[in-house]
Design goal:
The complex is a heterodimer of chains A (67) and B (257). Chain A has 67 residues and is mainly β. Chain A is built from one helix and five strands. In chain A, 25% of the residues are buried. Chain B has 257 residues and is an alpha/beta fold. Chain B has eight helices and ten strands. In chain B, the strands form three sheets. In chain B, strands 5-4-3-10-9 form a five-stranded parallel sheet. In chain B, strand 7, helix 4 and strand 8 form a beta-alpha-beta unit. The mean pLDDT of chain B is 93. Classes of the chains: A mainly beta (67), B alpha/beta (257). Strand 5 of chain A pairs antiparallel with strand 4 of chain B, so a sheet runs across the interface.
Chain lengths: 67, 257
């Protein structure tokens, strides 16, 4: 298990969990989202190869209503 | 007559009305209001996904980016760093290079911090972004933004969400006269006639959110703004009559009995 911070909340994930796995867990595959991993933007093509480790900080953002 | 096309950042728009997508009751109302407004460009904000609510619909389920241009903004950013971070994420989301920059300086008035705004514009332009910039109605600063490579200048009519309407027509007119890039009045418009006045001054477009979303019937108000912008534009193109201080008869005096 690993403890990560996702959008400001601490969550537990399995070991060898990729960003792609995380998106699957939250039903976010094929949604218009962008991801920051420890402050660095991760391009979509790297979602599968980017594995998460203890204390990682992940931000998942999307578009909401705004003026 | 030559066709009057609104070009901004290389895109040709049918409507000179750009609308925001905030403050609506729900996404269905948002989508209906956008349709009624006839806008082909809408602004959107970038925020964290709510991870606790997996099933809840999201805005992009209701807006088709193939049919409507989404213009990501940096609303809520009070420094250059946050604004740049937000827009880089927005670009990653789907190739959005056309963005609306706003770097706020004061929580009470939501006035833009123009020093940070100009600096951020320079960085974004260097990174290949096309930047439409929310700014004060100061002609000198508007010129500095144009020189920094902005794609459009978006001076405020009055504070964001205030509904106070166009408070400084003279400054907006000065900005219009000096600018070679589109001038879009953003923020503070209260009702449809305010948009007409802005368009009559010669603005290239207006951006409206609260005046539609906070009206009693947003979908009807969206339609009102659509017509108001068209009216104002036509009036500007037609050119108003000269103002006289004395009366002038509309009916001929010849043949008077």
């Amino acid at each position: 298990m690993a403890k990560i911070q996702l959008n400001g909340k601490k969550i537990l994930i399995k070991s060898n969990f990729s960003i792609q796995d995380l998106l699957n867990k939250y039903n976010l595959i094929n949604k218009k989202i962008a991801i920051e991993h420890n402050g660095i933007i991760i391009p979509k093509i790297n979602f599968k190869k980017k594995y998460l480790k203890n204390n990682d900080k992940i931000e998942i953002v999307h578009f909401i209503g705004g003026g | 007559m030559k066709k009057d096309i609104f070009k901004v950042a290389g895109k040709s728009l049918k409507s000179r009305l750009i609308v925001g997508t905030g403050k609506y009751k729900n996404f269905s109302e948002t989508a209906k209001a956008i349709k009624a407004s006839g806008a082909d460009m809408v602004t959107v904000a970038v925020r964290r996904v709510n991870i606790l609510d997996k099933k809840k619909p999201i805005l992009t389920d209701y807006l088709n980016p193939k049919k409507i241009i989404l213009l990501p903004n940096t609303a809520g950013c009070f420094n250059s760093e946050d604004a740049l971070r937000t827009l880089r994420l927005a670009r990653e989301m789907g190739g959005w290079k056309l963005v609306k920059l706003e770097v706020l300086g004061d929580k009470k008035t939501l006035y833009p911090n123009m020093i940070e705004t100009i600096n951020s514009t320079k960085v974004l332009v260097k990174e290949g972004f096309k930047v439409m910039v929310y700014c004060t109605d100061d002609p000198l600063l508007a010129k500095k933004l144009e020189d920094a490579g902005a794609s459009a200048i978006m001076p405020l009519a009055s504070p964001i969400g205030s509904g106070l309407g166009l408070q400084n027509k003279v400054n907006i007119s000065l900005i219009i006269k000096q600018s070679k890039i589109p001038v879009i009045v953003d923020a503070g418009i209260g009702t449809a006639s305010d948009a007409t006045i802005a368009m009559e001054l010669g603005c290239d477009g207006v951006l409206i959110n609260s005046a539609i979303a906070n009206s009693k019937k947003p979908i009807l108000m969206a339609k009102a703004f659509k017509d108001a912008v068209v009216s104002g534009r036509n009036s500007f193109l037609a050119g108003r009559m000269k103002i006289n201080y004395f009366a002038s008869e509309s009916s001929p005096t010849k043949g008077l009995i």
